[in-house]
Amino acid sequence: MLVLLPVFALQGPIRRTLAAPATQNWMTVFVAVVVQALPFLVLGVLLSALLAVFVPPSFFARALPRSPALAVPAAGLAGVVLPGCECASVPVAGALVRRGVTPAAALAFLLSAPAINPLVLTATAVAFPHNPRMVLARFAASLLVACAMGWLWQRLGRPEWLRPPAHRSTDGHGKGAAFWGAVRHDVMHAGGFLVVGAMAAATLKAVVPPAWLYTAADNPVVSVLTLAVLAVLLSICSEADAFVAASLSQFSLTARLAFLVVGPMIDLKLFGMQAATFGRGFALRFAPVTFVLAILAAVLTGTVLL
Amino acid sequence: MFLVGGAVLHAGTTDLYLRYVKAGLRPLLLVAGVVLIIAAIATVWYERRAQPGREHHEPRISWLLVLPLLALVLVSPPALDSYSGMRAGTTLPPHFGLTALPAGDPLRLTVSGYADRAVTDHGHTLGHRTIALTGFVAFDRNGSVYLIRMLLNCCAADAQPVKIGLSGQIPPVLQPDTWLEVTGTYTARQTKDPVNNGVIPFFDVIQAKPVPAPADPYESLG
User: What pTM does this model have?
Assistant: First the structure.
C-alpha cells in the first residue's frame, strides 16, 4: 500500500517520462541490443556446454600444439571457425579454460573469433566495396592483437587473476543434468551482465549528440581515439559494425579500422560478460590492455596496408 | 528464464521483432526462445528428481533480465521515429552499381534506393519516371519537410536514417511520424545535412497520401 500510493500519485509524471521521445528511443535501443544479442549468447552457451560436458579434456591437449607459444596463434586462427559474434565467443572461451586449455590460448581465441570469422569478414567486404584491403587489414590487425594478448598473458598473467565463478558441482546427476545446468547458469549469469551493458550503450546513444563526433574527425590522432572509444561505448554486434564504420565517412580509413578492431574485442556489454565469465579482477586488467593494444595494432596495420 | 524464452518466442512469432532487429534474425530468435524454454523445463525436471535440501542460488545479477522482459511485454517500445531520425546524420547505402529499373508506373522504390540513384548517379537512371516512396515525416528546425526511412544492418542500435527532402505539392498540414506514400519525380535539388554534411537529395511530390505504418518499419541492407 505504501509503495502503491506514491506510484499512484506520481503516475502522471511517470507516464510523461515514459512517453518522451528520448526515453522511448532509449528503451527501443536497449531492447534491441538485448533481443539481438540473446540468440547469439544462447548459441554460444549451448556450444560451450557441449564442449564442457561431452568433449573430454584430452581432446584439446591433442588438438593444440604442446608449447604454449605455438598454441596461442593456433587458437587465434581457430577463431575462424566460430561463425558468430562476440556474445557467442565469451562463453565458449570460458568453457575452454575450464577444460584445461592454456588460458593464453583461450584468450587469443576469445579475441580473434568475433573479428575474423567468415560472416564478419564478408560483411566487411560488402560494407567497403571500394576498399577491399579493409578486409585484409581487419583480419591482420585482429589476429595480431589476439596473439599479442595471448603471449602477454603467458608472460605476465597470474592464475589468481582468472577467477571463473565456480560452477555448481553436478556429480551424480548424469550428463543431461550437467548440460542443462551449465546452459541455465551461463545464460542467467552472462545475460544479467548483457542487460547492464545494453543499458549503458542505450544511455550513451541517447545522450551524446552525434554532432560532437564530426568535429573530432579533422585531427588524425583524435579521430582514431574517438572511434576507438565510440566502438567501446556503442557495443554494436561485430556482424554489423562494418556498416556503421562505412557510414562514418568523414573519418580516415585507419580510424575506421580502429573502430572495427576495438569493437569486437572490448565494449561495454563484452566487459560485463567477461566479468561474469572470468571474474571481475580479470576483466578490469584485461580490458584496458586489450583496448590499448587494439588501437596500436590498428594504427600499425592501417599505415602499412591502407 | 521460461518467461524470457516465452517473450522471445512471442516477439519472434508476431511482427513485434521487426521493430528491433532485421528480418533475417528471426530463425535464430525462434531457436533461442525454444532452447530457453527447454532449459527451463529441464531445470525443473532435474530439480524434482534431485534430493530436497540441495538448493542452489542464481547469481543476483540475473534478476536484471527481468528489465528487458518488462520493457518488451508491458511497454513494447515503438520503432525508431522522427526524433532519432533527425538527431543522426543522413546516410547512403553502400553503392554497388545500379541495376536496370523494373517496369511499373508508378515505379516503387525504397527510400534508400532512391537516395542512392539520386546522389551517386544524379538521377540519370530515374529520368522523368513517376516514382512512389514510403517513409515517415520529420521536420528540421527551419520547418523543412523530410521523408525518412531508417536503414538497419542488424538491430535498432545501428539504425541510420536515410533522409529525402520533399518539395512540390506537400500537404499543408503534416504531423511528424506520419507514414506517407509520396508519388512524384526526381529533382536535381540537393542539400547538406547540418549534422554530418551528408548529401540529402530532394523529391518533387505530385501526390501524397497517408498510409499505415508497414510491418517492417526499417529498410535493411539484406
Answer: 0.72
